Amino acid sequence: MIKLKKYWVCCAVLFLVLGLFGCASTANKAFQTDESQVQLRSIQTRAFDTSDKEKMMRTVISTMQDLDFIIEKADLTLGSVTGTKFTNNMVVTMTVTVRPRGEKQLLVRANAQYGIKSVEDPETYQDFFNALGKSIFLTAQKVD
Amino acid sequence: MKRIRVILSLSLVISLSLAVVGCVSAPKGFLKPGENSLEKRQLQMRQYDTADETKIITSVAGVLQDLSFTLDDSETKLGLVSASKKADAKDGGQIAGAILLDVLLGSNTLSQCDKNQMVKVSVITSPGLDGKSTVVRVTFQRIVWNMTNQISRLETINDPEIYQKFYDGLSRAIFLEAHKI
User: Fold this and answer.
1) A15 lies in a domain?
2) A18 contacts B7? CB cut-off 8 A
3) In a mutagenesis test of the A interface, which of B14, B31, B80 is the best target, namely the one with the most A β-carbons within 10 Å?
4) pTM, rounded to two decimals
5) Domain range spanning residue A43?
6) Inter-chain contact B78–A115, Cβ cutoff 8 Å?
7) Is A66:B33 a contact under the CB 8 Å cutoff?
8) What's the alpha-carbon Rg for chain B, to the nearest Å?
9) Count of domains observed in chain A
10) Is residue B67 part of a domain?
11) Pick from A58, A75, A91: which is nearest to B154 by CB?
């Protein structure tokens, strides 16, 4: 019987510890990333051999529409497009930025959030860049 | 001894499942084009025989106002107008059914009934490939709140009637016929 009690205490402590960890949320949780900054940048960025920013942005927008996004904001000067999509009763928000890289290339970077999670999975971004590459008839090149 | 083992394994399962819930991550494949993307294009896109994109986008803003949307953002250089609108989402049938259920079973279905909704829309215009036309694509989404003011549904609207209504208004505004893609 005593041994049993011990186990219960152990269980209770375990739960408390788990609970405490769960509640250790502070502002810096919003700034945490699982991948390193450099890795994340390379997952989210591709280079395209074109300097036509407007065409690229229009293609980004139409690709996002094909993926069921609503375009909420866009700015040609800033090169940014922000959209929202609903899937499985969850909100996916994504910002895509387009900026020049040298004279002949454009860098496209996508940041997606799924609910309250930042998406850091390379495959998901690859899906997006595949779709984008198909629409603009150019190959997305990985960057370092 | 047997009991302890059971308790131990139980607690292991519970803490494992807690850990799993804590680390739930986004499912894969949500940025892959769906199988019915062609159908969606047909539903959401129309082509107009004019290269005057500015005329179309101005009319789009007007049509959205006619449908009592408020404009949230726009970037005419990229052909974007986004807007939203709040509306009632109460459905007599749904409420009557819920009240009946509640009376019969003593449940609380009424609180799960739809109350309000917000419809969001984005319209994109782009020059047609032939240089003589303009393509318009509109997408509607909605957020529904239930009686307890919790979000109960997030969805893309796929009702052809709603899209047709928008394009009917746009065609009237620019005196041009819309061609399906």
Assistant:
1) no
2) no
3) B31
4) 0.79
5) 36-142
6) no
7) yes
8) 24
9) 1
10) yes
11) A91
Contacts of B80 in chain A (CB under 8 A): 61, 71, 74
**Residue A33 near chain B (CB below 8 Å):** no
> Alpha helices, DSSP H only, in chain A?
2-23, 37-44, 53-66, 122-136
Q: Tell whether A72 is covered by a domain.
A: yes
Chain A residues closer than 8 Å to B137 by CB: 62, 65
pLDDT tens track of chain B, all 181 residues?
667 676 666 666 555 555 554 455 678 888 988 888 888 989 999 999 999 999 999 999 999 999 999 999 999 999 999 999 999 988 888 888 888 888 888 888 888 889 999 999 999 999 988 889 999 999 999 999 999 999 999 999 999 999 999 999 999 998 877 777 7
CA distance B124 to chain A (A): 8
Number of domains making up chain B: 1
**CATH code at position A44:** 3.30.310.80
Question: What is the spatial distance between Cα B138 and Cα A135, in angstroms, rounded to a whole number?
Answer: 18
Pairing of strands A141-142, A80-87: unpaired
* Residue B103 burial (C-beta neighbours within 10 Å; 0-12, 13-18, 19+): exposed
Verify whether the Cβ–Cβ distance B82 to A8 is below 8 Å.
no
Residue B75, min C-alpha distance to chain A (Å): 6
Q: Do A10 and B4 touch, CB atoms closer than 8 A? A: no
Residue B25 lies in a domain: no
Option in A10, A66, A87 nearest B33 (CB): A66
Q: How many distinct helices (H) and strands (E) make up chain A?
A: 4, 7
